[in-house]
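Reminder: ligand-aware prediction takes two inputs, not one.
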Amino acid sequence: MIELSEAISLIERAAAPLPPRRMPLLEACGRVLAAGIVSDVDSPPWDRAMMDGFAVRSEDFSAGAQEVVELDVAVDLAAGDVTTLEIARGTCARIMTGAPIPAGADAVVPVESAVDGTARVHAGGRVRLRDERFRAGQHIARQGAAFRRGQDVLTDGMMLGSAEIGLAAEAGATHVLVPPRVRVAILSTGSELVPPAATPAFGQTRNSNGPMIAAAVHLLGAEPIPLGIAADRPEAIRAAVAQGLAADVLVLSGGVSAGDLDLVPEIFRLCGVEKIFHKVRLKPGKPVWFGILQRENAAPTLVFGLPGNPASSLVCFELFARPAIAILAGQARESWHLPRRPARLTGPAKAAADRPVFLPCRLATSDDGLVATPLPWSGSSDLLGLAGAAGLIALPAGGQRYEAGEEVEVVLR
Ligand code: AMP
Ligand code: MG
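Here is what comes back for the chain with magnesium ion:
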């Protein structure tokens, strides 16, 4: 039996990012860049009008002036229009937002500043402008103000969310290098298990771990590969495990503790999976098993044997499988583990004598930080207590009773 912190560092050491692949930008949504993106354009690409109005020479205006300036409109420029004409003194261009500022002009006077009914004047006409707040350079986004051609606009390790995808598109990246979606095979073992659609007969239990772990995998942005149920027969488990070992990660539940039919550790051994640890000082989740299968011409498969009791299974998934999947997906260290925060208890919570314990709780914020309310929970097979829990109170071993008002650490789920 090893300590929780040691188990976690063994997993962190065993897992490495999957070799990245080039893929179309939008397919990489939600994934982490394995290589930065360099822009092939300035942004803005040229001096750009930011208002509808008139592109003028600022020497025709004086700041704070009340008087009206009358200018010949030399050209009309909508977004997409360009001109080689230079704006001379006493003239201007009628310009729309998004058009390049023509040579000679260095400010835009908004159309709202046109007076005496001249707001709709086009090329060939004369516009009368009064802009009391005029300043040189106004309403122009300068070329390269946001970023320059050749600049790293996104760096490796950044997650491609909506803004990042937009930025990559602007920078000319049609394809990006990202680790592929992590493929996670999910296998439930137990002769008592029946699919969720069945009505369990006496002695039978619905397979809740399968859908639960698939959901947890999905929420991490990885790809769940459900392998269903294997009965507690060596051939049945072995065939399903062999199938699961083709994935990047195999998450199996049940059959890993010390009962007569806890066949899984031996089957992992027969399949060539090297055991890294079995049993962690932890409640719930003590029997958890972790190992690694080296493969030729492929990244190793990481193998988790989670305890069958559903609450234990989920706690172990979150503590152990989550960081492994995050590391394979190339995520930055800060997002490997669920966040931990201090919180004040609203009611008593009891630590276990021999092992660190995780207890479901409700969370709220108050003026002096997070507040944790322990939820009624009957233990490792109770999913009801876990389902409403925004957090898990993490208490160190020692058997201490923590009272309302005391500060404890909570894991946010
Ligand atoms: P085991 O770890 O195989 O000894 O199982 C411990 C407990 O968890 C037993 O009561 C099993 O019936 C239950 N259990 C195991 N696998 C599942 C599952 N996939 N869904 C729900 N309960 C399970
Ligand atoms: Mg079992």
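The mean pLDDT is 97. Residues 188, 190, 192-193, 205, 207-210, 253-255, 257, 259, 307-310 surround adenosine monophosphate (ligand 1) (CB under 6 Å). We will return to this case in the review session.
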